[in-house]
DNA sequence: TTATAATATAATACT
DNA sequence: AGTATTATATTATT
């Protein structure tokens, strides 16, 4: 078997592989840009223009299509990688943001504990886990809150001073920063 | 495949001088599985066993490595796609979470507006944009808040009833849900 | 090693 | 059925 196979391979004729020159490649590429599929008419035209057998034009197109497929895979891969990077970075920013929001809610809760003793609010927002384990509550709208509270509040204007003290206590300065919310 | 070529391939294998047969492929593949790099000693051994010139073994390994590379690219692509999916889903969840936290902070702020009239806290946390435009402030620690406030609060125990009313007003029930935070 | 030409086979579509 | 075209894999050269 060994000598047989050896001879088999030695008897193979040498392939005369001729590279296409730059001009030929250029024309083929520009043709490929317009249509990935080689119409018979186009094949003959290219063969005539380039002095190449139509058969070779077909082969070139086949190989070019195979190459094109791999190129696309790599391009898509890079695009995907970019998407992932931005997604991860945005995720990180959101994590920081939620951390900050939880911290502020904790501060406010401390304030309420201080004001109200034992009956502190249990903010579900400050749970460590991401999954919101609490059922949705019907939340009163801005207008509802305002209309309800305005009448209620008149009786408690004497508290203003104490609240200002509290603001300072928890580190939230009032009316002195350039980040006023629009609401 | 037409019957002519089929017959040629099946019953006249000797005419197919170029392709390696199944047995040869099998041995080469198992060898490639163990090491992607072809040591000279291994090359001679395979050449002897398969009746193939060492040169052909080298070529086969080169081509096999190229194919292996492309295979890996496709595998990596799929893995990346999976990563992106999970990242996007986690991002979405975080967006919901921040939205909820902002809402709660707004509620609390409404409460403070109601209590304190014009001097509402400007929560930087409730800005719509993601970028935190505000400089960091030194925040007082938990212990600081407690120690400062405990002494301060004793004078205001009369406010308890009003705060309980406020809790109900903004929809945050106190002490009646199963989501107590650990702090 | 990379790129690519050339060949071989399998799959598909059209006649 | 046969014929043609294409996609894919493989071999080989530069």
From TrEMBL, chains A, B:
InterPro entries: HD (IPR001356), HDZip_class_I_plant (IPR045224), Homeobox_CS (IPR017970), Homeodomain-like_sf (IPR009057), HTH_motif (IPR000047). Residues 11-71 form the Homeobox domain. Signal peptide: none annotated. Residues 63-111 form a coiled coil. Residues 13-72 bind DNA. GO terms for biological process: positive regulation of DNA-templated transcription. Keywords: Coiled coil, DNA-binding, Homeobox, Nucleus, Transcription, Transcription regulation. Pfam families: Homeodomain. SMART domains: HOX. It is found in: Nucleus. CDD domains: homeodomain (cd00086). One of its GO terms (molecular function) is DNA-binding transcription factor activity, RNA polymerase II-specific. GO terms for cellular component: nucleus. Transcription factor. PANTHER family: HOMEOBOX-LEUCINE ZIPPER PROTEIN, HOMEOBOX-LEUCINE ZIPPER PROTEIN ATHB-52. Belongs to the HD-ZIP homeobox family. Class I subfamily. This is Homeobox-leucine zipper protein. It comes from Nicotiana sylvestris.
